[in-house]
Each structure stands twice: as C-alpha cells, then as structure tokens.
Amino acid sequence: MDELDLALVNALQLRPRASWVDLARPLGSTATTLARRWDRLSSAGLAWVTASFGREFSRSRCIAYVMIRSDPRERSHVVEKLAGCPEAATIEVATGGHDINCDVLTRDLRELDRFLSGKVYGVRGITSVSVLLTTSLYLEGSRWRLRSLDQGQLNVLAKSTMSLPRGQHAIDLDGLDRSLLEHLAQDGRLGWAELSGLTGTSTATARRRLGRLMSSGIVAFRCEIAHPLAGWPIQASLLAQAPAADLDRICQNLAAWPECRFVAAVTGAANIYSTFWVRDLGELQRLEARTSNSFPSLTVLDRMVALSTPKRMGHLSDNEGRRVGTVPISPW
I need a labelling partner for 206 at 20 to 30 A (CA). Which of 18, 24, 191, 192 fits? Predict the structure, then answer.
C-alpha cells in the first residue's frame, strides 16, 4: 500500500460513503484514479467499508466480550464454529489468560444467554468461558484514524462533511431496513441504484431510509484496513482494574490516545478493556509504562496480544488481515 492508498483509506475513515469526485480534490488526485485504487484495495481484501452499529446500539443493546479457553488441539474447530455465528462480530486468537476472545452483539441479555447456551457452551474443545458486559463504550474501531492526511486535507474533508440531524426517538426496523443493513454490512459503499435493485425499492426510498437509520444512531459506517500490511502489525489489549471514582476519567483519557482503537468500561474483576494498534512489541511495553505513569490507580490484570483476527466486525480475514469473506452481523 503506497501513500495514496493510505490517504484514500484515511479519507474513507472520515467519509465512508463520499463520492470519488468529492474526495479527488483534497487527495490531489482524480475521481477515476481513486475509483481504480479502491477497486484494487477492496478486491485484494486490503480495505473495505462496512455498515456497523451506531451510538444508539451501544446505549440500548448488549455488547459482550466472551473470553474462551480451549483445548489447543481443537482451537481451529472452535474458531470455525464461532466465525459462522452472526452474533460473533469479531474473533481474536490471542496470548494471555484466554486464547480466543470474541466480541458479541445481541439485542438484549436474554439473546446473549441463548447464544451462549446454544452456540458456545456445547462446542467441542471449549474448556472455559468468561463473559464481560459493556457498561459504557468510550471508543470503538470506526473512530480510529490512520493519520495519513495532513491538516489541510483534513480541513477540506471536514468542511464538506454533512452532519445528519439526530433522531429524537428509537425506531422500529422493518424488513426493508434490515435488508438495507444486510447488504451494506457486506459493502458499505453500495450506490443508491445498487441498493434499490438489491432491496426492491426506489432510490429515493433507499436514500431516505438510510438517512433515518444513520440519524437515529442505529447504524454507522467504518472503513477497515488489513492493519498488518499497513504498518500496524501488533494488536494488543489490556484488561485493567481502576477505582469506580477514576473509571470515567481514565477511559476518556485512553480514548484520546492515537494508538488506542477501543475502550470500554466492563463488568467483572477487570472494569476496563482497551485495545491498541502498535508497530512492535517494544512499543506495547512503553505503552503500558505510560498507562502506569498516567493513571497511578490503574492495575493491569491481563495483557493479550492478537496472534490472528479470523473475523472483524462480520468480515472473515486471513493471517495477514486481508478480508476473504463475510458473515454479516445482525444485531439490529
């Protein structure tokens, strides 16, 4: 991936569904060149845009982290079984206290219990399971930035970004809404004509429905990247414990660190779960030292380094992080 590739991905992190014409000027390129670049990146599984959960989901639905220990001889079987589950958004094979970590999205706690009982506890090779529940989500992957654009480019993109009005109330999803979300989870850059054909509605209706879903906070878009091939080969997570009085302040500060990709307050012995993308293991050590210096009341309980990420937000990946397939999440 060269500099223009990285700049294009960064621009799509900011404006995932922007037209190539709108992105051409700030990137110093042409719409044709950008379209060709994106086609190459997405076809090779190096980058992709997908529909994901929005702010309303994080407030009203259930986000859980299922930490699994497995028989080493059965680990591949366990991963394969979990990867086929639409509730399992992201799966990591990792070092640390658990060898498989799974991010699970469900409508409520009862549905989470059905998922665990029906699709996890009976899987051959699983030896133990622990579950953390999100109490507050401070940062998730859609807000992580590649930082390949200069300030001038960022300013141009920011000026041309249209902000949607926030919906006042939660909305009930019908069949058309769910169909739109299913197709956009597979390819978040589908055009209006394509969405119209796939869902059997008019382009005006598709545009109006998607605007409603975005403004209500049900859905957001994110541009993902095969991070090992883009200069961030190490994904590491910390499980930590902090006094309740310090929890909000620490999580907000961590969420502002450029290396940080994810921060949540969770239930359990550990009440902070955070993930970082770094360039080497030495940087991870320095990062932990920085957390200790910045937050004296914080105690790290477990350190997890991802060996591979077979699934990220519904998209299956190879060992290099390239997308090779899709099992769309369906928490809607």
Answer: 24
- Give the separation between CA 3 and CA 153, rounded to whole angstroms: 14
Within 13 A of 135's CA, how many CA atoms are on the CB side? 13
Is residue 4 within 8 Å of residue 37, measured between CB atoms?
A: yes
pLDDT of 165: 53
Nearest to 57 by CA among 213, 251, 204, 233: 213
DSSP per residue over 31-95, as a string? Answer: HHHHHHHHHHHHHTTSEEEEEEE-HHHHHHSEEEEEEEEE-GGGHHHHHHHHHT-TTEEEEEEES
CA–centroid distance for 315 within its chain: 10
Residue with tokens 């639905």: 61
Which residues are CB-contacts of 150 (< 8 A; sequence separation ≥ 6)? none
Burial class (CB in 10 A: 0-12, 13-18, 19+), 42: middle
State the Cα–Cα distance between residues 332 and 324, nearest whole angstrom: 24
Closest CA to 84 of 109, 115, 43, 53: 115
